[in-house]
């Protein structure tokens, strides 16, 4: 049996690591992987995500931290894109209502900005970019998206971020109303991570 590939997530967030570990399950037959947080992440020099695209931020982060630690390092950047708002919140999704804002405050700001918009103006998509690097060299950069629309009010108690107002028409529910396992199959992050595992499988 093939030995698991060890991947280090450039983060100190155990919640994000747990989410990625959940995403491994559907792709376990593709390539066995062992995921862990990058050791002593908070003691390392911080990478400032100042690029204009999700892919550039993910790649910059993975390259930066892979120069500081051995092994395969992966990093992501993701967010919500609303074309009718000029692409906002976009790369600023987490800081859309201020650096210390709550999910509710970010949603409130989004709904204010969307006021009066109807039909196709409410179209939106989530984007996730994931980059994999080793010793300062990029090994893979993948992106994926999921399309939906912004509701006028939140629905559901699951998920996080903008999930309660992101309506996924194929299931007739918001991402906050979909069970986690099903969301992992449909989400931008789930699709992007499966792409990364497929790319990694072809390298090893």
What is the element layout, followed by pairings?
Blueprint: E1 5-9, H1 14-24, E2 33-37, H2 54-66, E3 72-81, H3 103-114, E4 123-134, E5 137-150, E6 166-168, E7 173-174, H4 180-186, H5 188-203
Parallel strand pairs: 1-2, 1-3
Antiparallel strand pairs: 3-4, 4-5, 5-6, 6-7
Helix pairs in contact: 4-5
Brief summary of the model shown:
With 204 residues, this protein is of the alpha/beta class.
Folded structure, characterized:
- By secondary structure, the chain is of the alpha/beta class.
- The mean pLDDT is 93.
- It has a seven-stranded mixed sheet.
- Helix content is 29%, strand content 25%.
- It has a single domain, classed as Maf protein, CATH 3.90.950.
- The longest helix has 16 residues, at 188-203.
- Helix 4 (180-186) crosses helix 5 (188-203).
- Strand 1, helix 1 and strand 2 (33-37) form a beta-alpha-beta unit.
**Fraction of residues in β-strands:** 25-35%
- Shape annotation: globular
Q: Count all strands and give the number.
A: 7
Biggest sheet: strand arrangement: 2-1-3-4-5-6-7
Helix/sheet category: alpha/beta
CATH architecture: Alpha-Beta Complex
Major pleated sheet: 7 strands, mixed
CATH topology: Maf protein
Mean model confidence by pLDDT: 93
How far the N terminus sits from the C terminus, by CA atoms, comes to 13 Å
Helix content: 25-40%
Low-confidence stretches: none
How many domains is the backbone divided into?
Answer: 1
């Amino acid at each position: 049996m093939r030995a698991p590939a060890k991947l280090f997530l450039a983060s100190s967030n155990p919640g994000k690591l747990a989410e990625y570990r959940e995403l491994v399950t559907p792709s376990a037959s593709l390539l066995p992987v062992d995921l862990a947080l990058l050791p002593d992440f908070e003691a390392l020099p911080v990478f400032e995500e100042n690029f204009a695209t999700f892919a550039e931020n993910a790649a910059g982060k993975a390259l930066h931290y892979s120069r500081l630690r051995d092994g395969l390092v992966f990093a992501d950047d993701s967010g919500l894109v609303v074309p009718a708002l000029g692409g906002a919140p976009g790369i600023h999704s987490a800081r859309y209502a201020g650096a210390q804002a709550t999910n509710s405050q970010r949603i409130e700001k989004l709904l204010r900005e969307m006021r009066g918009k109807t039909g196709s103006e409410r179209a939106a998509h989530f984007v996730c970019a994931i980059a994999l690097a080793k010793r300062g060299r990029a090994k893979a950069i993948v992106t994926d998206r999921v399309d939906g629309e912004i509701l006028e009010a939140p629905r559901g108690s699951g998920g996080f971020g903008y999930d309660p107002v992101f309506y996924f028409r194929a299931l007739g529910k918001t991402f906050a109303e979909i069970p986690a396992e099903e969301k992992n199959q449909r989400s931008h992050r789930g699709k992007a991570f499966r792409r990364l595992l497929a790319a990694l499988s072809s390298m090893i």
